[in-house]
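Record 1 of the preview.
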Amino acid sequence: MIQTPGRSIVFCAICSGLEQEWSVSFRDNSPNLAIVYAFLRRPRGIVVVQQRVTPEELLRSHLKFRQKIMRDLNLQLLPDISMEAYFDKSQRIRTDQRKALWRKSVIIGLIEMWLFNFKSEAQKSQWLGGYAHLAARKG
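->
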């Protein structure tokens, strides 16, 4: 919790690791930034931002959305939820992002950053990766 004069602000992030390198993350801090959208997003890393909600509401939304994804894509939760597994997975994700960043065209990334400004606030607050496309194909 971060204390500010006159009020308390809680920044909360809830993440679930799923099979086949999928992850679902719900946060309450700020919408995705253009640079993150253009250069660091992952096809199987879903991020949803819900501002001005309680941690309980964030958890409820996360669990409901996670169940939908698991059902739609026929995925299970990762069985190992130890700290070591979490840090190993985080390191693999950062390594993969670094490799993707080296392969990505700077020009394309800058265009994506510019186009990001034209997205609605709702579009800026979530990144569904390949989920929407895969769910539509299966459904």
